Amino acid sequence: TLSDKAQIMAVTCGPYQGELYSAFGHSAIRVYDPGQNIDWIYNWGVFDFNQPNFYLNFAKGYLHYKLAVMYYEPFVESYIEENRYVHEQVLNLTLAEKQKLFDYLQWNARPENAYYYYDYFYDNCATRVRDVLVKVFGDAIQFDGSYVTTDYTIRDLCDIYLQEQPWGDLGIDLCLGLPMDKKATPYEYMFLPDYIESGFNHAYLTTSEGQKPLVAKTLSTHETKPDEKGFIFWRPVIFTSGLLL
User: Fold this and answer.
1) Contact assessment for residue 126 and residue 27, using Cβ atoms and an 8 Å cutoff
2) What does 142-166 look like in DSSP terms, one character per residue?
């Protein structure tokens, strides 16, 4: 049972061009409750490098992923070491709503429930963060997609994030083909962690007391810093008018 000190955060980590699988960034959920000595990350981005034909299957979107629960500090430190920004959105939930979400997370983390079949655009580490809230709160949660004013296809969105991964970009284009040319809805933009953050900033929860913003506040845990030559590592910046480089 969570204490009245508990907070639940949606965590967004910036892209990293060192690996193909990290080029899009990452999303997770943090449960922090000093009253119960809990500081856990629920991470749907765990996979086994030893799966046969790992990179080919990654390009095709044919990998088994799982939800893992891990301690917050080593998780966030690994992203800071790679100079990736980390933003934490404190969800605007009552204690009863936090408990309901926490109970679902605990259920999802059981071994028989933790594994899922990864899909690049519709079922990944980012969409799982969104979909957990949808499963817990149902129609009470609403996403206002009017802030998205661009008209990108899924391929367009991938190309933006894979500018420094030309071979990976080519492999994904070849393996996934024409379905990538579908015009993405604002809801579908949220296959990208940055758009989970923006989508949550434009989401609302309806309760018996009325409608409230889903996010109470955002904590800037780490921001990308210039390297020793003074260059700032590439990152996408999302504004309400769309996505810019």
Assistant:
1) yes
2) EE-GGG-----BHHHHHHHHTTT-H
Closest to 9 in 3D by CA, of 40, 34, 31: 31
Region 161-186 average pLDDT: 64
Structure tokens of 51?
């799966």
Nearest CA to 132 among 99, 87, 90, 102? 102
Q: Give the pair of three-digit tokens for residue 18.
A: 């060192």
Q: Quick one: angle between helices 154-161 and 166-176, nearest 10?
A: 160
Q: How far is CA 227 from CA 83, 84, 123, in A?
A: 9, 12, 34
Using CA atoms, how far apart are residues 3 and 98, in angstroms rounded to an integer?
Answer: 10
Do residues 119 and 183 make contact, with C-beta atoms less than 8 angstroms apart?
Answer: no
Are 27 and 193 in contact, with CB atoms under 8 Å apart?
yes
C-alpha separations of 11 from 75, 126, 177 in Å:
11, 10, 31
**What span, in angstroms and rounded, lies between the C-alpha atoms of 245 and 233?**
12
Q: At what angle do helices 125-137 and 193-201 cross, to 10 degrees?
A: 30
Instruction: Give the H/E segment covering residue 111.
Output: helix 111-114
Tell which wins on pLDDT, 183 or 101: 101
The pLDDT tens digits of the residues spanning 205-231 come to 999 889 999 999 999 999 998 764 444
- The partner residues of 91 in beta bridges, in order of sequence, read 215
Report the Cα–Cα distance between both ends of the chain, in Å, rounded: 43
Q: Taking Cα atoms as reference points, which of 87, 193, 198, 93 lies closest to residue 141?
A: 93
How many other CB atoms are found less than 10 A from the CB of residue 237? Answer: 8
